[in-house]
Amino acid sequence: MENISKLKEKLASYQRMHLFVIIKEYFIFTLATFPYALVLNQIIVPHNLVGGGISGLSTIIFFFSNRLVPIWLSNIILNVILLAIALKIIGWKACVRSIYGILVLSFWYWLIPVADKPLITDPFMAVILSGIFAGMALGTIFLNNGSTGGTDLIALMVSKYRYISMGNVLLACDIIIICSGYFLPNVHSVEKILFGLTYTFMSRTAIDTVMNRVRQSVQFFIFSKKAEEVSQAIITKLHRGVTQLEGAGGYTHQPMKVLTILCRRNEASTVFQLVRHIDPDAFIAENQVEGVFGQGFDSIRKMG
After folding, report:
1. Residue 177: CB partners within 8 Å, gap ≥ 6?
2. At what angle do helices 71-90 and 53-64 cross, to 10 degrees?
3. 42 and 117, same domain (yes or no)
4. Quick one: average pLDDT of 174-188?
5. Which residues make Cβ contacts (< 8 Å) with residue 290, sequence separation at least 6?
6. Taking a C-beta distance cutoff of 8 angstroms, is the pair 76, 102 a contact?
7. First to last CA, the chain
8. Last residue of a domain, one of 187, 214, 241
9. Is the pLDDT of residue 302 over 50?
């Protein structure tokens, strides 16, 4: 009973720290949406270009209405429609951060005016630099467990019922939206469609670069005298499996349990925080893993 009471105290302490982490994530999330909106309203739209995603679709509506329907309004309306469908398919918990992201991004769209002249006048440099900045912003948002809604919701819904990667769904949506811009009078140019595709490609590349470290998995070996408490904390808070191995000191011959855990790289800091709160004297070995397939990780069907 005493051990259970101590574990509850440790978990309560971690819960308070976890609340701080959530607040920090939302703060960074909010800031990261600003450069994304800035790029669209001050560079992409003034060049009469169309990007991917719901922002690209909102840009098409903006051009088609002769600039009467603002981007922020289209962004909200289109995302509300998608959310109404997504809530039934993937549940409200998966949509909470998307709702926040949609509102914050729409706020920045509303606050930042669409420029008459682009900040970067050369169209080629504009799409390259805009793609990098937009991709870094989105990558930062994703790193902090955020979402701006849009075609991400479509990808989540499709991938739930079909074995199609989210990346392929997003790519298909982007290509369709960008190419649709060709039929607009002020975009009616193969060159501008290629610029739009280049912008999206650079954005996706920047996202991959930022996200690359969290796609990797790590393996932990934890040597602790409080192995049971650590094990229960990781299972409860991270929802990751823990394997307990029987070990013994080579010098002392004292028996000790060794915990082995596989998790995503972005979950590694949580493992360290939990162990530090429960057993500051624990010994931890962390190794990078090339690939992990199975429940909770990449599907084993991707192999071969």
Report:
1. 50, 51, 52, 53, 56, 57, 60
2. 140
3. yes
4. 88
5. none
6. yes
7. 49
8. 214
9. no
